[in-house]
Amino acid sequence: MSEPSAVSMIVLMMVSLGAILLTVAAALTVMRMSRGPSSLDRVVATDVLVAVVIAALALEAVYNDHSTTLPVILVLSLLGFTGSVSIARFVADRDKATRWNVSQPHRQTRPPEGKQ
User: Fold this and answer.
1) Are the CB atoms for 76 and 54 separated by under 8 Å?
2) What is the three-state SS of 80-94?
3) In the prediction, which pLDDT does 36 show?
4) Domain residue ranges of the chain, discontinuous segments joined by +
5) Which residue, 58, 48, 53, is CA-closest to 14?
6) Which CATH architecture has domain 3-99?
7) Contact between 56 and 19 (Cβ < 8 Å)
8) What's the whole-model pTM score?
9) How far apart are CA 56 and CA 81, in angstroms?
């Protein structure tokens, strides 16, 4: 076996293994997206699915030995990051609104009678 064909066989095996693992990860992520139980779980699963797609595109670029998918990978990475940050801010604002609910009556802060 000559040297270039041995290297290409190793690359083919590694790409095949990576594709199998990414397929399993994508299937488990879609299952998490469908089951839930909360909307935050679904959003995190969507973010993981974007990461799996980015890894699959990188794997395809390695297999075909080109760099034309790099702009697509960059755009998907930026979209995934901004989506994660915006969802985290939304959840933080929702939790803050729940924690500091102003519709509940305020408790009195006077000390109990007889202990002044």
Assistant:
1) yes
2) HHHHHHHHHHHHHHH
3) 81
4) 3-99
5) 58
6) Orthogonal Bundle (1.10)
7) yes
8) 0.73
9) 18
